[in-house]
Amino acid sequence: MKAIALTRFGDADVLSLQELPDPLLGPDQVLVEVRAAGVNPVDYKVRAGYLQELMPHHVPLIPGWDVSGVVRAVGIGVRAWKPGDEVLAYARKDHVQFGAYAELVSVPDRSVARKPSTVDFVTAAALPLAGLTALQSLKEVGTGPGDVVLVHAAAGGVGHLQVQIARELGAARVIGTASPRNHEFVRSLGAEPVAYGDALVDAVAELLGGDGQVDVVVDNVGGLAFEQSLRLVRDRARMTSIVEGPTALEHGVANTWARPNAEQTQWLVDLVAAGKLRVEVQQTFPLAEAVKAHKVLEGGHVRGKLVLTV
Ligand SMILES: NC(=O)c1ccc[n+]([C@@H]2O[C@H](COP(=O)([O-])OP(=O)(O)OC[C@H]3O[C@@H](n4cnc5c(N)ncnc54)[C@H](OP(=O)(O)O)[C@@H]3O)[C@@H](O)[C@H]2O)c1
Question: Which fold has domain 130-255?
Fold first, then answer.
């Protein structure tokens, strides 16, 4: 099969289109003919070699943890899926080697959800990792009816879904940080936009009045945004960061590491099919142009998601 792979870690140019053996299928896995693969910041972090202490990596390594496609074959233990089914998945496995930037990918059946016919493959591939992160981070801190929620990087892959899911979970108000060019976009998702940077704490106080504090913070940025959030949240137990791991815990803040979850993926994609969750895809690239997609994403200002089409 054709796949985008690397044999050494480094910048985007270590990726190249290669002819590699088809992935072998385990007993509890589904082999998916990839139609589209979502591109996530974790893909360039894997590519750069930053995650080698967290998970075993093997080369040649095919990146990509988000997939939509059609089932070609199923492992001997799989009952829920059959060839021809249209699916999507957060396809992360314990070992990093056979990812979704390929014509075929093997996925544990516990991660697979059914793609509704009204949701296209590109949208479906953009959803799982970012959608699960958004949902699991909000649940981590018990987001629910009446909450005032602050979402950092509200125009980004995770943030634009978090804003909408927070509303779906009953949040009374959502405030989303973004640069001014994204404020209309963030407003259209159901959040009140504020500019990020040094003036953030004052801007939030002005928006809210009262003590200027929020009930829930989801930090998708870290650094300054994390520090400011410590002052903005009423109770640190209701703040989580998806980027500051040990630092978050040191400050009594939760951290969220998204886990594959078929049931939640199904809930998310059904919400999309029902017109209640909008997945913004800024741009698609053919598989062969994965290097370009990585360079755009690493620029740090994508609105919504990037997707590779296969
Ligand atoms: N723990 C986990 O399981 C997990 C899961 C998913 C992602 N992550 C991590 O979370 C981070 C965000 O992921 P993502 O997919 O949402 O990234 P992304 O889509 O690349 O984020 C891009 C967005 O960030 C905004 N942005 C840039 N600098 C900002 C700042 N200083 N303050 C506020 N917004 C800023 C940009 O908005 P403007 O253009 O308006 O500046 C842009 O819309 C990444 O580091 C990723 O690796 C972790």
Answer: Rossmann fold (3.40.50)
242-294 per-position pLDDT tens digit? 999 999 999 999 999 999 999 999 999 999 999 999 999 999 999 999 999 99
Write out the two tokens for 232. 């903005």
8 Å CB contact between 155 and 178: yes
307 beta partners: 38, 284
DSSP 119-139: S-HHHHHHSHHHHHHHHHHHH
By most ligand atoms within 8 Å of CB, the mutation choice from 196, 226, 229 for ligand 1 is 196
Cα separation, 29 vs 109, whole angstroms: 5
Query: Pairing between strand 305-309 and 29-39?
Result: antiparallel
- Using CA atoms, how far apart are residues 232 and 239, in angstroms rounded to an integer? 10
Measured in whole angstroms, the distance separating CA 287 from the mean position of its chain's CA atoms is 19
CATH 3.30.70.360 fits 2-127+279-309, yes or no: no
Cβ(281) – ligand 1 distance below 6 Å: no
Where do the domains of the chain lie? 2-127+279-309, 130-255
The stretches in the chain having pLDDT less than 70 are none
216 C-beta closer than 6 A to ligand 1:
no
Per-residue model confidence (pLDDT) at position 5: 98
Which pTM does this prediction carry? 0.98
Determine the length of the chain.
310
Q: How far is the CA of 77 from the centre of ligand 1 (A)?
A: 38
Q: What is the rounded CA–CA span in Å between residue 219 and residue 248?
A: 10
> For the chain, where are the E strands, in sequence order?
2-5, 16-19, 29-39, 57-62, 66-74, 86-90, 96-98, 104-108, 112-114, 148-151, 173-177, 192-194, 216-219, 239-241, 254-255, 281-286, 305-309
Does the C-beta of 257 come closer than 6 Å to ligand 1?
yes
